[in-house]
């Protein structure tokens, strides 16, 4: 049996496993008698890659079906065939795999080739990889995608075990093998590095899974003799490839692998249900746990120690490898709790930084110094707490968490700095508003020759004071010079904007201010006392002065003058509006060449500093004159009324006519003294009655109202006088005459009026509507004294009769 070749198809092209064929092969090859003393060699490679089956037949004296070169290149081997090598000890089983990337299966059907390759790698001790010489160094070589897939699956399904990969370079060229081998090994290493590895094999090297060997053979068709010689040399490598002691080692490794894997899984399962771990995990989710690293390390040490005790009698290499896997899996399981603890530590340090920074700023310490000290303190606390969190078994990188803390701190510093700067800026802006707004408004309302000089002085003083203290406050932030200059410049601009805003607000109310200024000057004298229009005042001159004052206010509010630049606004307004310029509505508007106000800009004044344009000034002045003409008219009417009330003489021509026409009658009175005495008595009585009745005051309200008022008061007064006379006569009959008294003082109309005002009013004789008659002329604005009552008149008449 040892010199005979037997073969069978293990798996057909459809993937069906031939159990009966395998049983027959085992009996024919005598595998049952070999025990574990056998080796498995398989070959894979692209379809028709210089004859895989041909190489096996020459190398192991098998009888696999070979491709007929005269029929062209096509698929020869379908599925997986196996045969016993002839003349090689120990027993060697050879498997011939279907070629990869064959056109018969199509470009997309790669499932079978991946499964067959993985099957060969799983059970083979040596895998021959047949490849073309010209594929070396090519990125898209035939076996590269297949090897990448096989490597990835091998790491997931099997633990590290040494399988020999013998790369057979076919049809080698003149390039020496020692030059081709490094390139091929580099390509294999790249494939290994690019494979996505499980966590347990992240750092596992290719050499822990495979022994990579490289050999090269000449072309079988062109150099058959050289091919035969080198194949014979290669055949010698397979004699006694597996010694009996090696078989024992393999058996021990297999047992150790299975048992250590079971122990590791058992300990990991116990770890996941450990009460101490569950309590620690629950606690760390709620908040920081003291001695976290020590407690977790203790739990891990316990289960790793149990593993060591139970696996101590197994193969050291397998035991160590499985322990490393157990430790890695356990650390992966508890890593989430470690991250949670790091999160608590970071939050605690960050909260401490925020509270320390707030307290430091409240104490008055500079912002930059406060942030430096607080950052240093919080990072030190984080690093100190980190020592209590670190697990001995793990070398976890905490730099990302620390960097996150630094980023959070820097972001908070930026936010607080921005808020503090905004707060500081707002505070100084409020101070400037309080220092400038109302004073500027007051200065503009009291516009005079030095208004803008006073505003400039106020603006510069308050701005420089604010900038000085603001710069001192900014020094604690340690800003760069550019930012510092920008903020102080913005504050200066804000101060200017306050003045500009207030100036524009007052300019919008210029007409109201002008009317107030006109009314103040027109209605008050130089001592600020209200004017009484007696007829002696020069209304024309007063009006001119009042309009000049209003025009001055208009000139002040027409433009801002914060830059010490001179302008001609006031002179232009005076020449055009006050000195007979084209201001009347009845006059035609002059052309822009002769009217300085026929423009939208002022000379030597920028548009940004213009508050009221020349055209607007002209319109405002016209409206101002219209609304103040009524006041002037009222003053003139008051003067005329005053003159009429105080002029009792007839016109001069009437006096001359009376003198000429009444000369004879006047001479007759002079020749007869009785006439003169009677006339004098009539004058005295008439004057007394006129003063008592205030006839002049009654007739000021009109002729008809005066006659009605006098007629209603005449009869009660006469009756009162008669009653007084009767009472006086009766009193003289009952009492002797008294010695003569000194004559009473002269009684004038004024004394009558004063006495009448001292007497208490009596309301039982006449209605209240007739007891007094005081009013104010709606046209002249002149106030008249209150009229006496009927009782007062009666008392005055009785006093006159007694005297």
From TrEMBL:
One Pfam family linked to the record: Sey1_3HB
Domain GB1/RHD3-type G as annotated: residue spans: 35-276
Ranges annotated as biased composition (Polar residues): 583-601, 747-760
Keywords per UniProt: Endoplasmic reticulum, GTP-binding, Hydrolase, Membrane, Nucleotide-binding, Transmembrane, Transmembrane helix
Residue ranges, compositional bias (Low complexity): 761-780
Family assignment from sequence similarity: Belongs to the TRAFAC class dynamin-like GTPase superfamily. GB1/RHD3 GTPase family.
Family matches, as PROSITE patterns: G_GB1_RHD3
SUPFAM superfamilies registered for this protein in UniProt: P-loop containing nucleoside triphosphate hydrolases
Region span, Disordered: 580-601, 728-803
Biased composition (Pro residues): 736-746
Protein name, entry field: GB1/RHD3-type G domain-containing protein
GO molecular function, one term: GTP binding
Origin superkingdom: Eukaryota
Gene Ontology cellular component annotations, sorted alphabetically: endoplasmic reticulum
Biological source species: Ananas comosus var. bracteatus
Single biological process term from Gene Ontology: endoplasmic reticulum membrane fusion
Upper lineage: Eukaryota, Viridiplantae, Streptophyta, Embryophyta, Tracheophyta
């Amino acid at each position: 049996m040892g010199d005979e070749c037997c073969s069978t198809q293990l798996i057909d092209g459809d993937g069906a496993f031939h159990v009966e064929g395998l049983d027959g092969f085992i009996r024919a090859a005598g595998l049952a008698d070999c025990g574990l003393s056998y080796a498995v060699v398989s070959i894979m490679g692209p379809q028709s890659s210089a004859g895989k089956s041909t190489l096996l037949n020459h190398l192991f004296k098998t009888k696999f079906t070979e491709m007929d070169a005269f029929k062209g290149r096509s698929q020869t081997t379908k599925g997986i065939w196996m045969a016993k090598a002839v003349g090689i000890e120990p027993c060697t089983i050879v498997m011939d795999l279907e070629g990869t990337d064959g056109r018969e299966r199509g470009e997309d059907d790669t499932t079978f080739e991946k499964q067959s390759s993985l099957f060969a790698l799983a059970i083979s001790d040596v895998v021959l990889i047949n490849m073309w010489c010209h594929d070396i160094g090519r990125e898209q070589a035939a076996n590269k995608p297949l090897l990448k897939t096989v490597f990835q699956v091998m790491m997931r399904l099997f633990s590290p075990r040494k399988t020999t990969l013998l790369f057979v370079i076919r049809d080698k060229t003149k390039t020496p093998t020692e030059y081709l081998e490094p390139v091929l090994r580099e390509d294999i290493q790249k494939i290994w590095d690019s494979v996505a590895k499980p966590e347990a094999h992240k750092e596992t090297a290719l050499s822990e899974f495979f022994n990579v060997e490289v050999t090269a053979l000449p072309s079988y068709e062109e150099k058959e003799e050289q091919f035969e010689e080198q194949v014979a040399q290669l055949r010698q490598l397979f004699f006694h490839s597996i010694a009996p002691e090696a078989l024992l080692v393999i058996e021990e490794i297999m047992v150790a692998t299975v048992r250590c894997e079971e122990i590791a899984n058992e300990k990991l399962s116990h770890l996941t249900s450990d009460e101490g771990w569950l309590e620690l995990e629950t606690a760390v989710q709620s908040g920081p746990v003291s001695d976290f690293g020590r407690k977790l390390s203790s739990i891990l040490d316990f289960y790793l120690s149990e593993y060591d005790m139970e696996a101590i009698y197994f193969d050291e290499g397998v035991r160590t490898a499985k322990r490393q896997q157990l430790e890695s899996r356990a650390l992966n399981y508890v890593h989430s709790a470690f991250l949670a603890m790091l999160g608590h530590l970071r939050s605690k340090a960050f909260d401490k930084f925020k509270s320390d920074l707030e307290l430091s700023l409240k104490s008055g310490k500079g912002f930059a110094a406060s942030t430096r000290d607080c950052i240093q303190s919080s990072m030190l606390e984080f690093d100190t707490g980190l020592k209590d969190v670190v697990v001995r078994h793990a070398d976890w990188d905490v730099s990302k968490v620390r960097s996150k803390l630094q980023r959070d701190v820097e972001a908070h510093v930026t936010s607080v700095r921005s808020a503090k700067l905004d707060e500081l800026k707002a505070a100084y802006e409020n101070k400037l508003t309080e220092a400038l707004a109302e004073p500027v408004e007051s200065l503009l309302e009291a516009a005079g020759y030095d208004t803008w000089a006073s505003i400039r002085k106020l603006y510069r003083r308050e701005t420089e004071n604010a900038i000085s203290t603001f710069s001192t406050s900014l020094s604690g932030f340690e800003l760069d010079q550019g930012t510092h200059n920008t903020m102080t410049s913005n504050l200066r601009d804000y101060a200017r904007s306050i003045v500009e805003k207030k100036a524009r607000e007052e300019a919008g109310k210029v007409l109201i201010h002008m009317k107030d200024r006109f009314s103040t000057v027109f209605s008050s004298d130089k001592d600020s006392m209200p004017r009484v229009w007696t007829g002696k005042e020069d209304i024309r001159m007063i009006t001119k002065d009042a309009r000049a004052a209003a025009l001055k206010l208009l000139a002040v509010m027409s433009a801002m003058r914060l830059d010490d630049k001179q302008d001609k606004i006031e002179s232009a307004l005076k020449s055009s509006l006050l000195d007979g310029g084209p201001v009347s509505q009845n006059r035609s508007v002059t052309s822009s060449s002769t009217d300085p106000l026929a423009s939208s800009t002022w000379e030597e004044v920028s548009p940004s500093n213009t508050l009221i344009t020349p055209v607007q000034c002209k319109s405002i002045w016209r409206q101002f004159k219209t609304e103040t003409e009524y006041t002037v008219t009222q003053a003139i009417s008051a003067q005329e009324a005053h003159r009429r009330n105080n002029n009792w003489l007839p016109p001069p021509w009437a006096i001359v006519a009376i003198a000429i026409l009444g000369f004879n009658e006047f001479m007759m009175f002079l020749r007869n003294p009785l006439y003169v005495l009677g006339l004098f008595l009539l004058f005295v009585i008439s004057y007394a009655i006129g003063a008592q009745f205030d006839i002049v005051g009654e007739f000021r309200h009109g002729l008809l109202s005066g006659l009605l008022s006098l007629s209603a008061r005449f009869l009660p007064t006469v009756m009162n006088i008669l009653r007084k006379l009767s009472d006086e006569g009766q009193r003289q009959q009952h009492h002797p005459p008294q010695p003569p008294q000194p004559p009473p003082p002269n009684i004038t109309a004024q004394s009558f009026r004063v006495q009448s005002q001292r007497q208490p009013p009596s309301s039982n004789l006449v209605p209240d509507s007739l007891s007094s008659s005081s009013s104010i002329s709606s046209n002249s604005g002149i106030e008249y004294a209150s009229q006496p009552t009927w009782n007062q008149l009666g008392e005055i008449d009785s006093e006159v009769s007694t005297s």
